[in-house]
Specification:
Layout (H helix, E strand, L loop, with lengths): L6 E2 L4 E2 L5 E6 L5 E7 L4 E11 L4 E8 L6 E6 L1 E4 L2 E4 L4 E11 L4 E8 L2
Parallel strand pairs: 1-11
Antiparallel strand pairs: 2-3, 3-4, 4-7, 5-6, 5-10, 8-9, 10-11
Length: 116
């Protein structure tokens, strides 16, 4: 199976030439914590979290700055403004997609289904 076609489920993923991605739910299940490792092997890393609420589709996107070998991102199932957070309810069909380009120029996509 091609690397970009693989589907992973909430477990750490490591490939010899690539980065490691390890998503897990925060203890209160209101956020996804994603640990990244081996980032020195990547030129660029971006991520997209999408999920369905009882009202509409929601999500979060971002990218990681270059220069570190590890990083952690906390992706909320909700929104925050001025340190006040409003969390979404009725979350289903949550998916995380991490795209990266290696230092050799190869592009990969890692996909995760998240059970909230």
């Amino acid at each position: 199976m091609l690397p970009q076609a693989r589907t992973e489920r909430q477990t750490a993923v490591t490939s010899g030439a690539g980065i490691s991605v390890s998503p897990r739910l925060r203890a209160d299940r209101r956020a996804l914590i994603v640990n990244f490792a081996n980032l020195q092997k990547a030129e660029a890393v971006s991520y997209v979290l999408t999920y369905q609420t009882t009202v509409q589709e929601e999500g979060a996107i971002g990218s990681l700055p270059k220069g570190s070998s590890t990083a952690t991102q906390e992706l909320l199932f909700g929104t925050c403004s001025k340190n006040v957070c409003k969390y979404h309810t009725g979350i289903s069909n949550a998916k995380l997609e991490v795209s990266y380009t290696t230092t050799s120029g190869k592009k990969y996509i890692k996909r995760f289904k998240i059970k909230v």
